Amino acid sequence: MKDKILIVEDEFIVANDLSLMLKKAGYDSCGIAPSVARALELIAEQQPDWVLIDIFLQGERTGIDLGIQLSNMDIPFIYISANTNQTILQAAKATLPYGFLVKPFREKDLLVMLDIAQYRHGQNIKYNLQHQMGLVQQLAAISTKKEASAEKVKQIAQLLQPVLPFDQLFLTRINPRSPARDCSVIKSPSGNYQLETTESMLKLLSVSSRDYKLWDPLGLKLDKQLHCAYEFRKLRMEDRWTQVISDQFGLESAIMTSITDPKGDLYRVAFFSKEKELYNSIHVDLANQIMTAFSAMIDEVFFSKPVAEIKEVKLNQVPASHFYRIIGNSPLLNSVFDKVKIVAADDTSVLILGESGTGKERIAQILHELSPRKSKKMVTVNCAALPLTLIESTLFGHEKGAFTGASDRRIGKFEQADGSTIFLDEIGELPLEAQVKLLRVLQEKEIERLGANQTKKINVRIITATNRNLEKEVAEGRFRLDLYYRLNVFPIELPSLRQRKEDIEALAYHFIEKYSNKSERAVKSISAAALQQLMAYDWPGNIRELEHLIERAVLLSSGTEITDTGLASGKQTGHPANGTLYPDGNQTSIGNQSASVNQPAAGKTKTLEEVEKAYILEILHLCKGKISGPGGAAELLNIPSTTLNSKIKKLGITYEFTD
């Protein structure tokens, strides 16, 4: 007999069909519960190995509520729901399920999802991922950084936004009352976050300190946590502070929760949104979970003193740490190293997540280098660069005559990687038709060439990477949910450079040494003022952007020290001096060379695509339009020319060079 499975589903017909499917497949269907309360009773009685949970159930509590409890009880579970919008998926993800099955589904879909979930559960037991990858741990890592409050708050806001969106976060100390211990975090239209003290907030709103004290913000006894529609209008009438800030910032809904710090001080925390119907009971559950993490870090995060400015920079400074040529010693990066060490020697599928320029391909290479498969070359495939008509042929190969133009047999990338590792970069770009084929390879461990009449068993370890939000792609129907859960067995999330600014100095010196030697320049160090420019910048292009900036600075420096990075002037105007295109700028002119990028509205933060487009344009300038071959842009960017051509087409770049 296979595992005992409890079904938590309030639609009897669906629940009964599930029970029959499970029994037919040899599982022990140990009960059906229509509500969270009944489910907890059956769990105590039956002690199931697995639980299948619908999201919306009888009673006030949802499947998400039950998922939170099951996570705490270490009972694995899978969600079954017809609701796959992004909010639901984000909330479900926060409870750490082992799968998500979308209604309606076939018997085969259920059994495949159970197989995937059991595999993931076995791997998670092995690696103890449940305790390594939670939101609480990430919040704690940020709180221990030696950075100013504003920087910590920005990182926490960016971490919370996908799970619990907000336009304004307000913290006020209720007991003992102290207006000086209140603060607000405001999200700007461009997506940045600003930490405002009581004093700066009152100045912004033209409110006196006396009025603020009399209003006693959110000091009223609140019997509800969720405030939408009528409840938010009622809150506005009862709380003068909510009325003022909602009028000023256009706020339409809120979630209220409380938190007690280690000293016993009681705070009230409010998440405000400009959307009327954004929040629901799932968000309330998430807010309460987040407050558990916040309780130990209020002082360290929201009220810590600014970190002292760097007063001195040592010449020829040695980088903080090396891990297989990856430089950095920040807590978030060390956490990545720990995960790499744990999973490298196994054949487990790994999904590497992170923004463009964070080093996903390098992590994939290290995973291969540390694995028993290292004697064979890792095969790398950039899914974004695959022509739509040739994806299947490229990945799985084809026989001679399989289609028009197939004059010879072709060995596909998976077959080339037999006995080794295949790295599928930008997996989020793979079309749905190819995703189906990939899922079969993962499940059956076999491929079939186009035009062939038999399959071939292969032994391949799969590592994938993406800078996309795959949960959002799933919610919008562009990525298969079953494939997502199959790839997401061991996720490794790479921090952005703005999340580990303590590594910037070491990285800067590494790149100074690299490009000084390459260009035979005498540059050996960077001044304190220039380093401060690097530390103050947000780095939307991450390490790749920092590397290119240092390369430029080395080339432009006339002495032994970099004294100006160009960020200060470029950030203000978008048009740095000397005609050089920096990431903040949108157009430049060097002699008779010219290029332009659509300039965003004033004050708008550039997107990663805009930054990447600016980089490629600049490299094309340096290479005078040459893409491939020695001295070409592809060589300088260290990417295949096919990949560069694909990016040029995707980004809509047109380039002209005039002598």
Structure description:
- It is a single chain.
- With 659 residues, the chain is of the alpha/beta class.
- It folds into 4 domains: 4-131, Rossmann fold (3-Layer(aba) Sandwich); 148-302, Transcription factor LuxR-like, autoinducer-binding domain (Beta-Lactamase, 2-Layer Sandwich); 331-493, P-loop containing nucleotide triphosphate hydrolases (Rossmann fold), CATH 3.40.50.300; 498-650, Orthogonal Bundle (Helicase, Ruva Protein, domain 3).
- It has 27 helices and 24 strands.
- Strands 8-7-6-11-10-9 form a 6-stranded antiparallel sheet. Strands 2-1-3-4-5 form a 5-stranded parallel sheet, sandwiched between helices.
- The longest helix is centred in the first third of the chain and has 21 residues, at 107-127.
- It is flat, with a radius of gyration of 27 Å.
- The relative contact order is 0.07.
Helix and strand arrangement:
Layout (H helix, E strand, L loop, with lengths): L3 E5 L3 H13 L3 E6 L2 H11 L3 E4 L9 H11 L3 E5 L4 H9 L5 E3 L4 H21 L7 H9 L5 H12 L7 E8 L7 E5 L5 E5 H8 L3 H7 L10 E2 L2 H9 L1 H10 L3 E8 L5 E8 L7 H14 L3 H5 L19 E2 L2 E2 L3 H13 L6 E4 L6 H10 L9 E4 L8 H6 L16 H4 L4 E5 L6 H13 L1 E2 L8 E2 L3 E6 L3 H6 L5 H7 L2 E4 L10 H16 L5 E2 L1 H9 L5 H15 L4 E2 L4 H7 L13 E4 L2 E4 L11 H15 L10 H5 L3 H10 L9
Helix pairs in contact: 6-7, 6-12, 10-11, 21-23
